[in-house]
Amino acid sequence: MSNKLAFIVDDSQQYLSNQVKEIMESWEFQNSEYKTVFEWKPGIANVSLLFGKTKAIHLDLSDTNNLNKFVDFIKDDEKNKKTLDNPNWYGVGLIITTTKAKGIKKIEQLITKNKGLFIKKRKPEELKEEILASLKINNKLKQFLSDYAGNDYDLLLNCSNSLKKIPEDELKNKTIEDLFIFLPVKKGAVPPWEFVSPMIQCNTPLALDKLRRILENSHSLLVMTFLKRKIEELYHEKVLLVSGMTKINDRASFLKSNPWALKYNSNIISKISLDVLENIVLLVNDSEDKLKGGADVGNVNLFMETLITKIIIALKYNMKVG
Q1: Burial of 321 from C-beta contacts in 10 A (0-12 / 13-18 / 19+)
Q2: Of the candidates 135, 94, 144, 142, which has an alpha carbon nearest to the alpha carbon of residue 114?
Q3: Which of 48, 61, 156, 217 falls between 20 and 30 A from 72, CA-CA?
């Protein structure tokens, strides 16, 4: 078991902050029981507060100058003062963090010598897998979150932190759409569902403009998730309408959907045939299979634009497309 001493290296400040919080909690320190400092000074970890209590320390050495000063202090201490040989030099608890990967060998050796915890920068895939594994959600939602965040680790971590605020018994019953009210959106990004409304309205220029902007920040399979859901919603609603269920509230109750959302569909539902909707469902499913199966679709963005254009033609002119 390691002492209450840790050194964490990563280029994500979000990850470092999260690790500091988790480790301090595992050491049974609350937020008020540790403080962050940016420069090492001898004895800083042993300063007593009122009633004789000593705070744990988070030493943030992301600044190159402060990092170099601490490394120089270690070198000087090895030759002369030997204060770091005192087993109490790190006080009741010390976590050192840095976003710098170079010039840290001396710190690593110091932590190892004192049997502390050393967490090296890991591959993004490993961090991503670790975060997803910590969430009590099904594999479908994990895949969705993975697609949603892409390679943006900080966004995925923010998503994870947001979802962990939901009680586990509630979280396990959430759908993809339910999760969105809890998820942060990338700064400046267009939410990945915003192409759906102009598509249903058969507004090709606006739908494609939204789609292009969405694909700048979102994975094509995430876009496909919202496209598929909307098309299937239209299809199932049309089936109910054809079978004689004419009231929107009845269809909404049957489909467990929002009456307002179905009312928004009513114009297109009344005009399009069930055969054409079946054709669109097959087209979307086939396109999704190609993307998931790694088929050569050429430029993925162009592939998605072509798909949306075909769907709009089918909806607008009530005609099958291929």
Answers
A1: middle
A2: 94
A3: 48
Matching residue, tokens 């892409």: 150
Query: How far, CA to CA in Å, does 73 sit from each of 45, 56, 202, 225?
Result: 15, 20, 67, 55
∠ Cα 95 159 200 (to 5°) = 165
**Average pLDDT value for the chain:** 85
Distance CA 135, CA 138 (A): 9
Alpha carbon 318 to its chain centroid, in Å, reads 39
* Domain with residues 196-317, CATH architecture: Up-down Bundle (1.20)
Predicted TM-score of the model (pTM): 0.52
Query: Alpha helix (H) ranges present in the chain?
Result: 13-26, 64-79, 105-113, 124-133, 139-149, 153-163, 168-171, 176-179, 196-200, 204-215, 220-242, 248-255, 259-271, 274-292, 300-317
In this structure, which topology does domain 5-119 adopt according to CATH? Rossmann fold (3.40.50)
**pLDDT-derived band at 1, boundaries 50, 70, 90:** very low
CA distance 253 to 5: 57
Amino acid identity for residue 180 in this structure: F
What is the DSSP code (8-state) at residue 180?
G
312: its two tokens: 């709009």
Instruction: Confirm if 83 and 38 have CB atoms less than 8 A apart.
Output: no
Say if CB 264 and CB 258 are below 8 A apart: no
In percent, the amount of the chain with pLDDT more than 70 equals 93
Beta-carbon contacts of 9 under 8 Å, excluding residues fewer than 6 positions away, are 97, 98, 99, 100, 101, 104, 119, 120, 121
Query: What are the phi and psi torsion angles at 96 (to 5°)?
Result: -105, 130
What are the C-alpha distances in Å from 249 to residues 10, 117, 259?
A: 52, 59, 6
| pLDDT in the model for residue 181 | 61
Return the SS3 of 184: coil
At 275, list the tokens: 């055969």
| Three-state secondary-structure class, residue 5 | strand
